[in-house]
Amino acid sequence: MLRASQAVRLGLRAASRNPELSFAKALVDQGGNLLAILPLALGAVLLAAVARGEVLRAAAAALRAILALRWPVLGGITAALVIAFAGSMLFWAGAVPLLAADAELDRRPPPGNFVVLLSRGAARTIVAGAFGWGLAVLFTLACEAAAVFGIPAALLRPSALLFAAFGLLIAVAVTGTFLLDALARLTIVRAAAFGDPGSAAFGKAASLLGARLGAAMLITVVFVVLELIVGSAAAGVTGVLSGATFFNPPAELLALAPRAAIGLAAAAVFGWLEVARMGAFAALAADAEGLIAPEAPPEPPPIAELVVEALPVED
């Protein structure tokens, strides 16, 4: 049985042997972020163009523009999120089989198969991703709704029972988020790498998660910690630049290039970690199917070598 540490090592090795997947994942993520911000930026430009003249007249025009733009901006954000989700699922439809093959063969798969795998598994990967991530999003919204209703009650009528319930809600939210994230990733792996339909992929992923719960949670925790380290390092370097250029417009202008470089480097590292995490889950699923040969135990040293090492050493 493949251990969690071995799965993490296989995932990191697969991501390192296929660096183009990490850069492609970074581009997909950055493109999705830009698409999500674009409707807000366009709305802000329209508000700036409308809010002119006297203060009261500008405020009234801005208020009318906000009321008129709220639904178009919300629709634009929704469309951007759908496009970003579809792009991410299409990427995993071609990348996950390559990662699973890398873990199984212990070498880089032959080039030129990404588009073929994408065309064959796009539909079922999107359906499986909708199953997995949809459940995760619904769980997150339910926890946020419970927190919204629970925080005012805890502040207005504080009691030990309410604080205990709030702590239990936080624990359930964190644990459930980790579990559903692992379930969604295993669902995508089953659909993209093993060709299961959406509902069958979700059921087999849930069965695998129940059988290898400890390994799946350990993989998730390891990569979350690594991403926190990368995010903290990037934020720290960006904070140093911001502190050095505070209230200095020329320095702020010169610091745009280093900030952009730090952002791109962090996005590439995050993409590498995401590909490695999916590779670790692909290795876990491949091991459950018996596709990964167990590592041979190290050979014991010869008896003569043990005897020589046990002899006393003269001063």
How would you sum up this structure, described in words?
By secondary structure, this protein is mainly α. It has 10 helices and no strands. The protein has helices at 4-17, 19-50, 55-105, 114-156, 160-194, 198-211, 213-244, 249-254, 256-288, 303-310. Helix 1 crosses helix 7, helix 1 packs across helix 9 (256-288) and helix 4 (114-156) crosses helix 6. The chain starts with a helix and ends in a 5-residue tail after the last helix. The mean pLDDT is 83.
* Total number of strands: 0
Structural class based on helices, strands and sheet pairing = mainly alpha
Largest sheet: none
Shape: globular
Low-confidence stretches: none
Strand content: under 5%
Q: Report the average pLDDT across residues.
A: 83
Q: Given the structure, what is the number of helices? A: 10
SSE ordering: HHHHHHHHHH
Helix content class: over 70%
End-to-end gap: 47 Å
What radius of gyration results from the CA coordinates?
25 Å
Main attributes?
single chain; 315 residues; mainly alpha
Write a compact overview of the structure shown.
The protein has 315 residues and is mostly helical. It is 85% helix and 0% strand. Helix 3 crosses helix 5, helix 3 crosses helix 9 and helix 5 packs across helix 9.
